[in-house]
Design goal:
It is a single chain. The protein is built from 13 helices and 13 strands. With 388 residues, it is an alpha+beta fold. Strands 1-9-8-2-7-6 form a 6-stranded mixed beta sheet. Strands 10-13-11-12 form a 4-stranded antiparallel beta sheet, covered by helices on one side. Strand 8, helix 6 and strand 9 form a beta-alpha-beta unit. The longest helix is centred in the last third of the chain and has 22 residues. It is globular. The two termini are 36 Å apart.
Length: 388
């Protein structure tokens, strides 16, 4: 096992010393989490290319890939059939989410022993604000080292950490030297760190928006900064102000330990393409009812329903419908979700995947209305989501 505290990549001329008024944010990301847990628990898998996921003979996808598998181009969300073609020696392990959740609970217990300001992003990823911390440690890099060591000793697994004055920079830094990395972006070296980052690094820029930016000659964050906000707005619309701030290294979002859910839903990839409209409508209806049940359990209401459809050629569309009043009544959700099916080619083209989710959540049915009540393609959560 690699010593998790042996290396710290510090982007600073003065180590990790930070002014007391500057926030100290950590982004912690477990390395190849599901696959690493499986390799930890099965010695025969260590050093082998491992993919956690579904059956390559069906519609299985890769949920996680070990670093040995990644050398062959195997990545999460890749169809397992393609992963096997890329890496004929790939060892496929079916996921055990109960085990992964148990390990995640151990990791998050470590985080919360350091600071109550822990914002979970997933089972294996979180932000920590350690400006003040239970260890009374003034250097954030030392906190990161201690957390990494505690994770290693408790779980036998490694995590990569990024340390920076804000969430955006900390997240980029955590991926800088994976696996088992530790990168610190000190305030006085933010400019040096971000100058030549590609536009893909910007939060909210997915493949489609990145392609749009590059079409307009915007390759790096320096390019984004060189354009005026008005000119940038003509390329990316309302994202212009946000992307300009990030391109200058500015991100004032706090670490939110009780961050409210912004959406919920489910999706299913089918072993056989769905072609009958009755089957499609039935599946969509069940997902809409599940979403309504989720709202009921949490005492929430939602204004927006989003339908996701992926066809047999992997092309994907989303459709949304919003109302001025929020609800959690399953009847309207089912009706609206099934009506959205009629705005797609489902039934005329084979359907590989369906998904239904609810958005614009509130704790009262009298949710404030927002523009775009009955939109076409929904942006959230499937295509280049704007900042949370």
């Amino acid at each position: 096992m690699v010593d998790s505290v042996a290396r710290a990549d510090i982007v600073s001329d003065e180590g990790s010393r930070e002014p007391g008024t500057v926030r100290k944010i950590l982004h912690l990301d477990m390395d190849a989490f599901y696959a690493s847990v499986e390799q930890r628990d099965n010695a025969a898998l260590r050093g082998q290319p491992v993919a956690v996921g579904g059956d390559p003979q069906g519609r299985g996808v890769v949920a996680a890939a070990s670093y040995e598998a990644r050398r062959f181009g195997v990545r999460s969300a890749l169809p397992m059939s393609r992963a096997v073609r890329l890496c004929p020696g790939l060892v496929i392990v079916r996921p055990d989410f109960a085990k992964y959740r148990a390990v995640s609970q151990q990791v998050f217990a470590i985080y919360r022993s350091v600071t109550p300001l822990v914002e979970p992003l997933s089972l294996d990823e979180a932000y920590l604000d350690v400006t003040e911390n239970a260890w009374h440690e003034g250097l954030a890099v030392n906190v990161a080292r201690g957390v990494k060591q505690a994770i290693l000793e408790t779980t036998g697994l490694t995590a990569s950490a990024g340390v920076a004055p804000n969430k955006f920079l900390a997240k980029i830094a955590s991926g800088w030297k994976k696996p088992d990395g530790l990168t610190v972006v000190a305030p006085e070296r933010v400019e040096r760190f971000i100058r030549e980052l590609p536009v893909d690094a910007l939060w909210g820029v997915g493949p489609k928006t990145a392609a749009r930016l590059r079409t307009h000659g915007l390759e790096t964050l320096a390019d984004v900064r060189a354009r005026g906000v008005d000119e940038l707005r003509s390329v990316v619309g309302s994202l212009a102000d946000w992307l300009t701030a990030l391109a200058h290294g500015r991100d004032d979002r706090p670490v939110e330990p009780n961050r409210p859910s912004k959406s919920s839903g489910s999706e299913c990839t089918y072993a056989q393409d769905l072609t009958a409209m009755a089957d499609i409508r039935r599946e969509v209806g069940e997902m809409a009812r599940d979403a309504a049940s989720w709202l009921e359990r949490r005492g929430l209401f939602a204004r927006t329903v989003v339908l996701k459809v992926r066809y047999d050629d992997f092309s994907t569309v989303t459709r949304s419908h919003s109302t001025s009043m929020a609800t959690r009544d399953p009847g309207p959700f089912v009706e609206r979700a099934q009506a959205l099916v009629d705005r797609t080619d489902a039934g005329r083209r084979p359907v590989r995947l369906l998904g239904v989710s609810v958005h614009n959540l509130s704790d009262t049915p009298m949710a404030p209305a927002t523009p775009a009540a009955d939109g076409g393609d929904a942006r959230l959560p499937f295509d280049d989501p704007p900042p949370a």
